[in-house]
């Protein structure tokens, strides 16, 4: 897995892309750390320029949290999905946020995906999610930033197109 600043390479699309990311994580983790069944929850991305947020928890005792915060303009509500899952040993956490119909027609003025309980090892943002015969189209690296716990738009260079975010993170160890 790549470091947050260098870990920006693409994966597959829609639900299949999420499973592709999980498969990559499972292969990287080895057979002793297989990926558990993810939880996928639909939610509406609402235009209007107001900041909205959607969160999901995963892992034993809801150890991990993924939160998608955004503001968008244009059109009407779009149905999106968030999938969260953990490796069987609960040391890795995945969060994928995407529009199942592929390309979003909303104009995103800002976005941030944040993980709690883990540090990002891999992250990628896409202008278009794979759907039908269409492929994933990643954002250019100058359009977004990846830190230890967030993936955010980069003001001034983000071109307002977003259809998918993929994050793979490693559990942080809490002090006793």
UniProtKB/TrEMBL annotation:
One of its GO terms (biological process) is positive regulation of angiogenesis. One of its GO terms (cellular component) is extracellular space. Keywords: Signal. The keyword Signal applies. InterPro entries: MYDGF. Residues 1-34 form the signal peptide. This is Myeloid-derived growth factor.
């Amino acid at each position: 897995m790549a470091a947050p600043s260098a870990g920006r390479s693409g994966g597959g699309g829609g639900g299949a892309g999420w499973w592709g990311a999980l498969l990559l994580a499972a292969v990287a983790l080895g057979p002793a750390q297989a990926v558990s069944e993810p939880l996928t929850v639909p939610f509406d991305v609402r235009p209007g320029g107001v900041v909205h947020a959607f969160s999901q928890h995963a892992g034993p005792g809801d150890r991990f949290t993924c939160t998608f915060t955004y503001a968008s303009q244009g059109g009407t509500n779009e149905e999106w999905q968030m999938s969260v899952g953990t490796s069987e040993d609960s040391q890795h956490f995945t969060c994928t946020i995407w529009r199942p119909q592929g390309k979003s027609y909303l104009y995103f003025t800002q976005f941030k995906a944040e993980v709690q309980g883990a540090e990002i090892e891999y992250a990628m943002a896409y202008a278009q999610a794979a759907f039908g015969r269409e492929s994933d189209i990643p954002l250019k690296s100058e359009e977004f930033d990846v830190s230890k716990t967030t993936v955010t738009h980069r003001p001034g260079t983000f071109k307002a197109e977003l259809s998918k975010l993929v994050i793979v993170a490693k559990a942080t160890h809490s002090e006793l």
